[in-house]
Design a protein that fits this description.
3-stranded mixed beta sheet; 6% strand; mainly alpha; elongated; 6 strands; 64% helix
């Protein structure tokens, strides 16, 4: 569907370029979303893009540029003064996103050329740390004085609607901009002129503070299911709003950050980053993994006598460790996802229920995988006539014993990995540490060490101590 729309849109834009005086063709662009227009324009030559932008005007251009994927390329093609004129027409959150795509020198040059109101909005958002709610606010909202009448409130909304399209919820403020509540546009439209405006105000309308942690606020924001939510400063004044776009952006940022940690990165990477920058993000965890790998090897070294006596068990080591790691990762992913729901993070009963559930799942999966492992390992050993004990030749009893060790190791390792994958992120959450870091080297090392001890320890007991 989207491909067909882009084909039709490109044909229309090319027609407009050929006949730039045809206003009817230009009006047809209003039928298409700015995101699709941006996608098409980015495929055209610079000269054709500028012709379309000239015809559309700066305000429409600003709406399209906000969706550009390579905005820095476009900004580099125009004068800083023109770039400032276009960016200052954007909503403040879009303007910040565009400016952050530029290098620092170009960014500061353009900010200095913007008008004072737009500059203040950008600098306000830039002043917040990236993990705070304030860094996601937009100035795309309409506020109404609390002493308004139905008629004056409607007139004020109509007047401001030309500058702000986020009109479905209107925020009511005092004379000194302190937040009082909100009024839905539908209620204002359906109210009679002699009704009391005060009766329309929802005094308990949700709000957030600019210093709230965004990652911890996401679930609360989703619960309200509003198109926008006001953000207040310490003086209870509205500094901006969180829109649906803000929520999507924040959710995406949180996902990318967690995904980077899952991959053992200090932070997410961008495809356009230099090789050196990517190396800096990856090397810290790789060094940690190196030393933790040495720790696992040291544990294996403790069982040197077992390996010498029953060397064939080394052949199946990776299978045991790999399966334990896979199961641990599954439990970890489920737990981290559930931790995002604050009720699990704070409810001890739910945490215990989660641990017991993973324990049951681990036991059942362990029994199934253990049984399958026993059958196929035994078949393999019989077919290859494997010599389990050195200088003893092929013995079916030894093959049965090795198969049993692998099956039991699978059962215990998978069960333990399920519990570790659940308990470890819960423990980190209690210690105020981001549980996503558990997905990297730590959880893998814990599972590897426990699996090695179980596997080689069981072999030591059955082959060396008892036999």
């Amino acid at each position: 569907m989207k491909e067909q729309i882009l084909i039709e849109l490109k044909e229309l834009i090319l027609q407009i370029i050929e006949d730039s005086t045809n206003k009817e063709l230009l009006d047809q662009l209003e039928n298409y979303h700015e995101s699709d227009i941006a996608d098409v324009l980015e495929t055209l030559e610079e000269e054709k893009r500028f012709l379309i932008f000239d015809l559309l005007g700066k305000e429409k251009t600003s709406e399209i540029i906000a969706y550009y994927k390579n905005v820095e390329e476009y900004i580099s093609e125009i004068k800083p003064e023109e770039a400032a004129d276009i960016i200052e027409l954007m909503d403040s959150d879009d303007a910040v996103n565009v400016l952050n795509e530029l290098d620092e020198e170009d960014k500061q040059r353009i900010i200095e050329l913007m008008d004072e109101e737009a500059k203040e909005s950008v600098e306000l958002i830039e002043a917040y740390d990236e993990d705070l709610v304030g860094s996601y606010i937009s100035d795309n909202f309409i506020s109404i004085p609390c002493n308004s009448t139905i008629k004056s409130a409607m007139s004020h909304m109509v007047k401001m609607a030309g500058e702000h399209d986020n009109i479905y919820v209107l925020y009511v403020v005092t004379e000194d901009n302190k937040f009082v509540g909100a009024v839905h546009l539908k209620d204002l439209i359906t109210a009679r002129s002699n009704d009391s405006f005060e009766n329309l105000i929802m005094l308990g309308y949700p709000s957030f503070y600019d210093t709230d942690i965004m990652s911890k606020s996401l679930e609360k924001i989703k619960d309200y299911n509003e198109t926008s939510i006001p953000v207040l400063n310490a003086n209870h004044e509205i500094v901006g709003v969180l829109t649906t776009d803000s929520l999507i952006e924040a959710t995406t940022d949180e996902f990318e950050e967690d995904y980077a940690k899952f991959g053992g990165l200090t932070e997410e990477e961008d495809i356009d980053e230099s090789v050196l920058m990517s190396i800096k993000k990856r090397i810290p965890w790789l060094i940690v993994l190196l030393f933790l790998g040495l720790l696992v090897s040291s544990v294996i070294g403790i069982f040197e006598s077992v390996i010498v006596s029953v060397p064939i068990i080394v052949f199946f080591q990776s299978m045991i460790l790999g399966m334990a790691g896979n199961v641990g990762t599954q439990s970890l992913a489920v737990t981290i996802r559930n931790i995002s729901n604050e009720s699990l993070a704070k409810d001890k009963k739910k945490q215990l229920k989660s641990i017991l559930k993973e324990l049951r799942i681990g036991i059942i999966n362990g029994l199934i995988i253990g049984a399958v492992s026993f059958i196929f390992v035994l078949i393999y050993l019989v077919i290859t006539k494997a010599e389990v004990n050195l200088n003893e030749g092929f013995k079916l009893s030894s093959c049965l014993l090795v198969s049993g060790i692998i099956a039991i190791s699978m059962l215990v390792s998978i069960t333990l990995s399920s519990v570790i994958g659940t308990c470890f992120p819960l423990l980190l959450t209690k210690m105020k540490i981001d549980p996503a870091v558990a997905s990297g080297p730590f959880i893998t090392t814990l599972n590897d060490i426990s699996s090695v001890i179980i596997y080689y320890g069981l072999t030591f007991i059955l082959f060396i101590v008892l036999l």
